[in-house]
Amino acid sequence: MTVTSVRVAPTACPRCRSATLGVVGKSSVAGVWTIFSCSTCFYAWRSTEPEENVDPEKYPAAFRLRPEDLARLKVVPPVPRRRPSL
Q1: pLDDT tens-digit profile of 60-86?
Q2: Side by side, which strands form the sheet with 21-26?
Q3: How far, in Å, CA of 16 to CA of 63, rounded?
Q4: CA-wise closest residue to 38 among 83, 70, 61
Q5: pLDDT at 75
Q6: With bands split at pLDDT 50, 70 and 90, how would you rate the model's confidence at 2?
Q7: In this predicted model, what pLDDT tens digit does every residue of 17-40 receive, in sequence order?
């Protein structure tokens, strides 16, 4: 596992290779890390994660998604209601 420090914004999502990326957060200390998110498959990653989590070419093939298949995937299970506090 190799930890990377991305200084250049990614151009493709590691999981679905879509270009619909955005920055959703940055470290309070400038330049330490950035959180990116894909609006196509909702994958999110931090710039300091290992290469296999941030590089589309190294992302595990078993976990890749194709944007054209997303509409056919099953619905995400709902989050259960919060328990009443005691």
Answers
A1: 999 999 999 988 888 777 888 988 887
A2: 21-26, 34-38, 44-46
A3: 9
A4: 70
A5: 78
A6: low
A7: 999 999 999 999 999 999 999 999
- Phi first, then psi, for residue 24 (nearest 5°) are -115, -10
Which phi and psi angles does 26 have, rounded to 5°? -140, 155
For the record, the structure tokens of 51 come out as: 């290469």
Overall size of the chain counted in residues: 86
Region class of 41: left (phi > 0), else alpha (psi between -120 and 50), else beta: alpha
Distance (Å, rounded) from C-alpha 15 to C-alpha 52?
Answer: 10
71-77 CB contacts, 8 Å cutoff, 24+ apart: none
Type of residue at 78: P
